[in-house]
Amino acid sequence: MNAIVIRTISPQAIARIEELAATHHRTVEEEAAAILERAVFDRASRLAAVDRIAAMTPKGVEQTDSTAIIREARDRW
């Protein structure tokens, strides 16, 4: 069995992990492991989703830079 020891974590983070563990009916160790698993593997699935979404755009269609849209909305306020 693998083990990781984390010596530098804030009390606030520990408290939040304890809350999540209680919500999910897990031990603190199980919850921390689940958080790490999601952090490691969810990134790959998010990047795959980005690629799938990008592939939906027809070839040759010019996309608007989201920065321009955000600035335009901000300037209206």
Automatic annotation (TrEMBL):
<dbReference type="GO" id="GO:0006355">
    <property type="term" value="P:regulation of DNA-templated transcription"/>
</dbReference>
<feature type="domain" description="Antitoxin FitA-like ribbon-helix-helix">
    <location>
        <begin position="3"/>
        <end position="40"/>
    </location>
</feature>
<protein>
    <recommendedName>
        <fullName>Antitoxin FitA-like ribbon-helix-helix domain-containing protein</fullName>
    </recommendedName>
</protein>
<dbReference type="Pfam" id="PF22513">
    <property type="entry name" value="FitA-like_RHH"/>
</dbReference>
<dbReference type="InterPro" id="IPR010985">
    <property type="entry name" value="Ribbon_hlx_hlx"/>
</dbReference>
<dbReference type="InterPro" id="IPR053853">
    <property type="entry name" value="FitA-like_RHH"/>
</dbReference>
